[in-house]
Amino acid sequence: MFPLFAARWDRSDLTASLTLFTGLMALAFCLVHLFVGQLRFLDRNPRSRWLSFSGGVAVAYVFLHMLPELGANAGAFHRATGLDEVMAESAVYLLALFGVAAFYGTERALKRSRGQDKDQIEQARPESSVFWLHIAVSSLLMFVIGYLLNHREDTSLIGLALYFFAMILHFVTADFGTRGDHPELYDDRGRWILSAATLAGWLLGTQLSVPEIAIGGLFAFVSGAIVLVVLKEELPEERKSFFLPFAGGTLLYAALVLSEQALSA
Are the CB atoms for 173 and 54 separated by under 8 Å? Predict the structure, then answer.
């Protein structure tokens, strides 16, 4: 019915059209890194409803795209390693757990470096060395996400569009939180490092295709990291999040995903 949206490319033959689309997406991600500090309407207390909406979209993406794809990637591990299906699936989710642990560790380090005074924890700045550790780990995540733009399981145009929609809103939320830890350092160098990592990952993805098992592992790690970032940004009580925008983002993205699946069936 909609051949343009349903059309899929052979992943072994990276076309110029796919490269153009993913390149534009990578540039849009970089614009978020570079200019999130200019989005003044996000900087308010209580928390901006747009950030809660973005968090809802990211949560829906995790449950409707990432978790099913994690299960699908277990097949690649099974074929590549010879492990039985249960062990292969456990290996995939273990990599996702590593993603959670890596980002939880940096978030804990940031919180501890602000000091132990709970009344001042939101105003205090973390140590610059800890902030740069956080930027380094975030850059690794941006690099992998940029690479996966050209190596996704779902390569339909509408699938790419849904991925882009979820990821760019996630970046707004994540970058806004990161910048809030150290605005001066983020604006001076942090945003450029994140942008460079995103473009480098995308560029590598256009030139190099790693084995399917490696793609599955990278995707699992990214999934775990995004789960942690989403929960960190939305759940703490002191952030004064809004439920209705959060639920609205979740329901909207869920409706888009279900519509895309119905059209592709």
Answer: yes
